[in-house]
Amino acid sequence: MKMHARFLAVVLASCGACVAQAGIFDDEEARRAILDLRQRVDASRQESEKRVAEETQRATEDTAQMRRSLLELQNQIEVLRVELARLQGQNEQFTREVAELQRQQKDITQGVDDRLRKFEPIKTTVDGREFTVEQSEKRDFDAALAIFRKGDFQAAQVAFVDFLKRYGQSGYVPSAFFWLGNAQYATRDYKEAVQNFRTLLVQTPDHMRAPETVLSIANYQIELKDIKAARKTLEELIKAYPQSEAAAAAKERLARLK
Domain for residue 244, yes or no? Predict the structure, then answer.
């Protein structure tokens, strides 16, 4: 019984030693497995960190490159904006200059036209007669007539004589002779007045002032007491211009002369 117990104790001790050895073996394997796993994990982590670092570096470089590109693009845009503003300014300046040149050209053209119009012949109507005259003719005739109407008959004579010398072929000539004769008549220069009246009648017997001119000659003859000549002149007036107001006046004067 004691032998059996001692044997059993030895067996159990042997088993315990075997179990202990087996436990030691299992722990070592586990440690190696854990160590290997840790190494793989560390290697994977390092590789991952390396890739992340590389990706981060590439991303950083790409971002920096993009920023440089954006900055360059922004600079280019700013340069273009400045250039566009400069071109717009030039365009506005050119537009103003063109407008100013057009205005100057218009003013010059208008000025030339105005100056040319001062020398262009114009149409006028005097004493029922329409004709074309130079503007200087009209100006000088109107000036002479204005002097006559002011009652300065001496100055009017000078003005009309000068007009006839300067514009001997003018359409104003018959009217100029008429008003010259009246200015001379007003200053009692009857002889010169009648001479100019007769010139008017010879040159333009159909002139609107012709009946008045004949009546003025008859008045002159009455002034000289040449009744016979006056009567003849009045009769010629009535015969030549029967429908005129001067003819009606001539009839009244003939009646008084009888």
Answer: yes
Token pair of 49 as six digits = 């960190």
Q: Is residue 40 situated within a structural domain?
A: no
**Ordered per-residue pLDDT tens for the chain, 258 residues:** 555 556 555 555 554 555 455 556 678 888 888 888 878 877 777 777 777 777 778 777 777 787 787 677 777 888 878 887 888 888 888 788 878 878 887 777 666 555 555 668 999 999 999 999 999 999 999 999 999 999 999 999 999 999 999 999 999 999 999 999 999 999 999 999 999 999 999 999 999 999 999 999 999 999 889 999 999 999 999 999 999 999 999 999 999 987
Question: Where residue 187 sits, what CATH number does that domain have?
Answer: 1.25.40.10
212 in any annotated domain:
yes
- Candidates 217, 246, 212; CA nearest to 231 is 217
Which letter does DSSP use for residue 241 in this model?
-
